[in-house]
């Protein structure tokens, strides 16, 4: 279609998960419960770490930042999804779409950097325990945290900037439950090749770089653990790192496949299921993965409950 002769679209329809009305209310209730647990778990963990001076060390500052970012990502995606379950009109304006995409890209990128920093932190703690206070100082931890958030901000600005070159004039139906960059490419009437290339270069580079840091850090951790003769030390190290490895594996799998290979052929339903995993399920699981396996966090929670109950 010639853009000059067509009407440029400024509103889109988010189809969501189901086209059957009888499933709208049950799905709304399920995702509402998930969202409430996610927010309480992540913001509660962040508040717990902020209020307990004993947890003001790099490991827990990173954990608190990760919990905050998980709450951010969930709050970016889930409220709009919940509203669409009940709304007759599932419209979203172009400005709302850009804002949601910007917020999600910021959170997802920041989480990639945080997971890499947490892997490096565990490497220093296990492989160089005597030098840990010297290497992983409060100043370095603060600098790494700020760099993660700034990196997420810059990355999201880049993609939003390139999106302004696209126009939408053919279809306004977006087969997704939130405004994501790949569905926007599919309905654009401007050639999105440059945008796809930018996603591949920037998102791919960030994910490959952070995954390499995680893999190298935990490979060195594994070698250090295997050299230990203390069974108790091996168990403690595996317990500390196991939660992080589980979270990284669950997060990077669908994210890497979706944004590093944006041209891969798969159904819209499969795209939504992949997106659901890292926008809704992972933020729900992370506080449970980290908190339930961490003695200091559980002890701090018990103390806080005793003071307030």
UniProtKB/TrEMBL annotation:
Classification via PROSITE patterns: G_PROTEIN_RECEP_F1_1, G_PROTEIN_RECEP_F1_2
Location of the G-protein coupled receptors family 1 profile domain: 41-290
Keyword check for Membrane: yes
Keywords: Cell membrane, G-protein coupled receptor, Membrane, Olfaction, Receptor, Sensory transduction, Transducer, Transmembrane, Transmembrane helix
Cellular component per GO, a single term: plasma membrane
Record field: transmembrane: 23-45, 57-78, 98-120, 140-164, 200-225, 237-255, 275-292
SUPFAM superfamilies linked to this entry: Family A G protein-coupled receptor-like (SSF81321)
Cell compartments where the protein resides: Cell membrane
Pfam families found in the cross-reference section: 7tm_4
Gene3D superfamilies: Rhodopsin 7-helix transmembrane proteins
Any one GO molecular-function label of the UniProt entry: G protein-coupled receptor activity
Membrane topology note: Multi-pass membrane protein
Keyword Transmembrane in record: yes
Domain of life per record: Eukaryota
Function: Putative odorant or sperm cell receptor.
Family: Belongs to the G-protein coupled receptor 1 family.
Name of the protein: Olfactory receptor
Organism: Ailuropoda melanoleuca
Phylogenetic placement of the source organism: Eukaryota, Metazoa, Chordata, Craniata, Vertebrata
């Amino acid at each position: 279609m010639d853009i000059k002769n067509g009407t440029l679209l400024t509103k889109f329809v988010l189809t969501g998960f189901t086209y059957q009305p009888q499933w709208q209310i049950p799905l709304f209730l399920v995702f509402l419960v998930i969202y409430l647990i996610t927010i309480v778990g992540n913001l509660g963990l962040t508040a717990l770490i902020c209020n307990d001076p004993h947890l003001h060390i790099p490991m827990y500052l990173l954990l608190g930042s990760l919990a905050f970012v998980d709450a951010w990502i969930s709050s970016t995606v889930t409220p709009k999804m919940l509203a669409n379950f009940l709304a007759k009109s599932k419209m979203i304006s172009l400005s709302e779409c850009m804002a949601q995409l910007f917020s999600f890209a910021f959170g997802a990128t920041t989480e990639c950097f945080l997971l890499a920093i947490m892997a490096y932190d565990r490497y220093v703690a296990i492989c160089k325990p005597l030098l840990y206070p010297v290497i992983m100082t409060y100043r370095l931890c603060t600098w790494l945290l700020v760099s993660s958030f700034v990196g997420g901000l810059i990355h999201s600005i880049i993609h939003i900037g390139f999106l302004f070159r696209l126009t939408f004039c053919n279809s306004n139906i977006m087969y997704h439950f939130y405004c994501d960059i790949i569905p926007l490419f599919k309905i654009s009437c401007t050639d999105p090749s440059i945008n796809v290339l930018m996603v591949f270069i920037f998102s791919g580079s960030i994910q490959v770089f952070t995954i390499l840091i995680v893999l190298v850090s935990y490979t060195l951790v594994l070698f250090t653990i295997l050299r230990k003769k203390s069974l108790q030390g091996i168990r403690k190290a595996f317990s500390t790192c196991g939660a992080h490895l589980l979270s990284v594996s669950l997060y990077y799998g669908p994210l890497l496949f979706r944004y590093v290979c944006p041209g891969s052929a798969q159904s819209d339903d499969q795209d939504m299921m992949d997106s659901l995993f890292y926008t809704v399920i992972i933020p729900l699981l992370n506080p449970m993965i980290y908190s339930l396996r961490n003695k200091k966090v559980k002890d701090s929670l018990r103390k806080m409950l005793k003071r307030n109950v």
